[in-house]
């Protein structure tokens, strides 16, 4: 089947004045995989759909609230972020499933998407056929603290610049919440400067990933960057509104769901421990560690992802 533009697309009214952009490609009568994007706030991938056989799968993707083609955009300081939480995104995913008339689907995504997928699957396990996670996160307080404070042990100069991006009154407190406050500032210059410094720090954490995509955060421009950083800081300042270890403690709810976890050994942003802990707690999960990959991948990680998709396509993971 040719891979042109979307076969169907639209804006789904999900309430609270929000409309969620979605699109589908591939076989409308086939199995459905939903591509969940990271960030939070990065917007849907423009290439991930190509990894799936469009003769076998209906490939659905969507932009989470506030980013991409969804409206309103979080780049607008007037956009109400109180109705942009993990709970809202889970309800949006379920609304999309019902809108598409899908009973069960395969969930695929990486980084922040791991957190959202795990939360969705634990809430709606009957609607999940299987899960592929790349670069596993659970957005726990210690994970956020590592990325935005603990990592200064390895990147002291870059972290000091990150800290200096805040006014002095905010530098000794919670840096993530400090940046959240700046992204809510009515002054466009304050927001633009904060977004630039946030992305510079994110890029510092992946600068060593020469086989992946170093520099990808600062490559975001204009409203895309503003929306991304505003959503990131909003979610991470609140630890995604999840109780500490909530998703790890809830892993038993995934007992009937097969999963493949793919993680880079060199991932500084999201160290391997999180994926390892999840694999131990999830009865049907398999952990694949890619030795030369960081958070943004490598050719070997791409091969591991394609192998995982092939196994789900062939159906061997559903045999007990």
UniProtKB/TrEMBL annotation:
The keyword Protein biosynthesis belongs to this UniProt entry's keyword annotation: no
Catalytic activity: Release of N-terminal proline from a peptide
Keyword annotations: Aminopeptidase, Cytoplasm, Hydrolase, Protease
Localisation per UniProt entry: Cytoplasm
Family assignment from sequence similarity: Belongs to the peptidase S33 family.
Gene name in the database record: pip
Domain named AB hydrolase-1: residues: 32-296
Any one GO molecular-function label of the UniProt entry: aminopeptidase activity
Gene3D superfamilies assigned to the protein according to its UniProt record, in alphabetical order: alpha/beta hydrolase
InterPro entries: AB_hydrolase_1, AB_hydrolase_fold, Peptidase_S33, Pro_iminopeptidase
Enzyme class: hydrolase
Superkingdom of this protein's organism: Bacteria
The UniProt record lists the keyword Chaperone: no
Subcellular location, principal: cytoplasm
Enzyme Commission number: 3.4.11.5
Pfam families for the chain: Abhydrolase_1
Name by which UniProt lists this protein: Proline iminopeptidase
